[in-house]
């Protein structure tokens, strides 16, 4: 767990790509690898809700950069 807000440089290219895709669609249930989902959830950038993935406000800030 990080003790600060993550930045884009804390993400791999694949993690950032998944985060950006979720940010564009607003809600996504596409098959993203479980390990990648788990890491983005741990970082507080996405959340699993109603069977899909939704970006958090912090995730939206990172995806914009």
Can you summarize this structure?
The chain has three helices and two strands.
Describe the structure.
This protein is an alpha+beta fold. It has one domain (12-64): Arc Repressor Mutant, subunit A (Orthogonal Bundle). Helices cover 46% and strands 12% of the residues. It is built from 3 helices and 2 strands; from the N terminus they run H-H-E-E-H. It has helices spanning 13-25, 34-42, 57-64; strands at 46-49, 52-55. It has a two-stranded antiparallel ribbon. Strand 1 and strand 2 form a beta hairpin. Helix 1 crosses helix 3 (57-64). The longest helix is centred in the N-terminal third of the chain and has 13 residues, at 13-25.
Topology overview:
Layout (H helix, E strand, L loop, with lengths): L12 H13 L8 H9 L3 E4 L2 E4 L1 H8 L1
Antiparallel strand pairs: 1-2
Helix pairs in contact: 1-3
Question: Per DSSP, what share of the residues sits in E-state strands of 2 or more residues?
Answer: 5-15%
> How do the helices and strands follow one another from N- to C-terminus?
HHEEH
**CATH fold-level assignment:** Arc Repressor Mutant, subunit A
Radius of gyration: 10 Å
Q: Main sheet, how many strands, which sense, barrel? A: 2 strands, antiparallel
Which structural category fits the helices and strands? alpha+beta
Descriptive key words:
about 60 residues; alpha+beta; two-stranded antiparallel ribbon; globular
